[in-house]
Amino acid sequence: MRIKQWIGALAALAILPMAASAANTMDGKALYQANCAKCHGATGEVSEYGKSLKPFPARNHRAIAKLISRDEMRRIITYGIKGTAMTPKKYTLDALEIEEVIDYIKTFDYTPDLANGKKRFEAVCSSCHGMDGRAKTGVGAKNLVYTKLSLTEIVHTMRYGRPNTLMTSKRHQLSNPDIADIAYYVDSLRYLANPANGKKLYARNCASCHATPSDIKLIGNAATTRSISDLSDRLLDLRIRHGRHVDRAGKKVEKLSSDSIQDIMAYMRVSTH
């Protein structure tokens, strides 16, 4: 009888490490279902309960899963968001489990709706940035056709605003799908320039002094850069409109629209890259 008891005890001891190992295996999906899905939905889209939360409903994770940084996700999950139903999860999830949850959220895919992005941009953003994104409104907003912001940076700006500017946080005014759609729409604006048309405009307005863009000599602080392709759109635009050559080409430059300047810049970048 004792032999059977010893055998049973040894078998139990052998099973314990396996059970402990299974309990310690971190599964991001399971952790998400247990800690997040009640409000944010099993697939990252807000649940009916999440929609009913006050003063703000839960956010759609799927829409911006790939558009916000891990650092921001980690901060929100760890410490929550004051004034909302998003409570700190540092008391229920350890640091490694939080990373597993982030890994799982990052697997969510979202197909942007550019038509909605344009519609919401025109309703919410155009008063400062203009209907075409070129910001000819006189309030100091950024020209979004020239922006070098990444999708992640565009989303961050919409969510939190820009200090000491008129750009305020839109995270309570816009849903996450709206923010994502606007971000993808804004990102699409920078590709509207036409290098082929820019080549024709360059030949007509610039080539009499600069046979090719590569012949242009950079002076001043810009002389430390390698080539025109290294200048930001903003600096290149300023040099075209206000550079020292304007005394000679000023009248031609004055007649060029913003779209024409953008086309010339696109051609210059292609030919000097």
Descriptive report:
The chain is an all-alpha fold. The protein folds into three domains: 16-105, Cytochrome c-like domain (Cytochrome Bc1 Complex, Chain D, domain 2, Orthogonal Bundle); 114-189, Cytochrome c-like domain (Cytochrome Bc1 Complex, Chain D, domain 2, Orthogonal Bundle), CATH 1.10.760; 195-272, Cytochrome Bc1 Complex, Chain D, domain 2. It is built from 15 helices and no strands. Helix 2 packs across helix 7 (95-105). The longest helix has 23 residues, at 2-24. The N and C termini lie far apart (85 Å).
Short description:
The chain has 273 residues and is mainly α. It folds into 3 domains: 16-105, Cytochrome Bc1 Complex, Chain D, domain 2, CATH 1.10.760.10; 114-189, Cytochrome c-like domain (Cytochrome Bc1 Complex, Chain D, domain 2); 195-272, Cytochrome Bc1 Complex, Chain D, domain 2.
Average pLDDT number: 85
What sequence of helices (H) and strands (E) makes up the elements?
A: HHHHHHHHHHHHHHH
Q: How many DSSP helices?
A: 15
* Low-confidence runs of at least 5 consecutive residues: 12-23
Q: What is the number of strand segments?
A: 0
Net shape: elongated
Strand content: under 5%
CATH superfamily of the largest domain: Cytochrome c-like domain
CATH architecture of the largest domain: Orthogonal Bundle
What is the C-alpha radius of gyration, as a whole number of Å?
27 Å
Q: What does the largest sheet look like? A: none
The CATH class designation of the largest domain is Mainly Alpha
What is the rounded distance between the termini? 85 Å
- The SS-based structural class is mainly alpha
Give the tally of structural domains. 3
Fraction of residues in H or I helices: 40-55%
CATH topology of the largest domain: Cytochrome Bc1 Complex, Chain D, domain 2
